[in-house]
Every structure is written in C-alpha cells, then in structure tokens.
Amino acid sequence: MTKILAISGSLRKASFNTGLMRAAEALSLPGVTVTGMTLHGIPLYDGDLEAAEGIPAAVTALKDAMRAADGVLLVTPEYNNSIPGVFKNAIDWASRPPADSVGVFGGKPVAIIGASPGGFGTILSQDHWLPVIRTLGMRPWFEGRLMVSRAGGLFDEAGHLTDETTRQRLSDFVAGFAAFATSAA
C-alpha cells in the first residue's frame, strides 16, 4: 500500500485547496491511500518558543505523518504570486531541530498541486516551492502538473470539488505520483 500525505496550505474552512485535498483523499486508487492534513494549530515559528517549550504538538504530528508517508503532496494556494506564509511557516517548523530534517524530508518524494480562483492556477506558488524542496533534500516528481484555475466554478460553497474533469485529472496525477513514490522507495 502506497501512503500519500496530502497537506493543505490553507486555513480557510471552504478553501479550494482543502477541497482539492479532500477530493484526493476520496479517490479509489488500487494500492494507494491518501491522508489529508491541515495546518491548524501550528503557531508562528519563534526560536524563543522552541527553546523554551520545544516542538509544538501540532508540528510533531505533521513531522510524524511526513515520516510515515511514502510521498508528500503539497496542496498549495497562491498568495500574492507566491507561497502562502502559513504553509511555509509549517514547513519551517517541521525542519526543526535541524537534526530531524533529514529524517522528515531527506529523499522524500514530493509533488505539488493547487487551486486558485484566477486563470493561472497556482503556477507561481508551485514554482516558488522548488527551491524550498531542493534545500530540504526532497525528491520532486516532475512528470505531472496540476494547476486548477478558475476554481470558483469547480467547487461548491462548502469547498467540495464538483467538476468531474478536474476529479479525473486529480486521479491521474495522484496515480502517477504514487507510482513515482513507490519506485523511489
């Protein structure tokens, strides 16, 4: 069984990206499970907090989930043509302490998808993730790209994916990534 951890980089309840993550969880792909995770409960990174209290429980849960996964799917919004601060903050926390970074990120297969109300999907955010995942030593999958543009017409008001074409594109993407994650092991 190939285990994929999908992380939504949005905190909004009816987020298109959380909806995309939930749609990935609901896929019925033979030999693949997708488990979603949000960033709720992760505080802003503060070295003084880390020194005084250690790694917060929500960060430890994220790190444990990443370690247990065969591959990590970053489901990223695009804010001001770049990575959402809350998402980058969570990854920064997960890289602490530095001695843990290799066990959490090193060689871990990773893929990036995202949904946006605009016409360009999340192309700039996805591109801006590349130096981060390179620095962390992850193994990016470049065989597919999924940028869901004009997401307002593809999700309902509760954030559920309603477009079957997008659902099929997502299924194809996750299946390809899962095959890569399995071969990378």
Structure description:
The structure is a single chain. With 185 residues, the protein is an alpha/beta fold. It has one domain (2-184): Rossmann fold (3-Layer(aba) Sandwich). Helix content is 44%, strand content 16%. Strands 1, 2, 3, 4, 5 and 6 form a 6-stranded parallel β-sheet that branches. Strand 4 (109-115), helix 6 and strand 5 (139-140) form a beta-alpha-beta unit. The longest helix has 21 residues, at 164-184. It is globular. The mean pLDDT is 96.
What's the helical proportion of residues?
A: 40-55%
What's the total number of strands?
6
Question: Strand content of the residues, in percent?
Answer: 15-25%
CATH superfamily: Flavodoxin domain
- Give me the strand/helix succession: EHEHHEHHEHEEH
Return Rg in Å.
Answer: 16 Å
CATH fold type:
Rossmann fold
CATH class: Alpha Beta
Number of domains: 1
What brief labels describe this structure?
six-stranded parallel beta sheet, Rossmann fold, about 15% strand, alpha/beta, 7 helices, single chain, about 180 residues, 6 strands
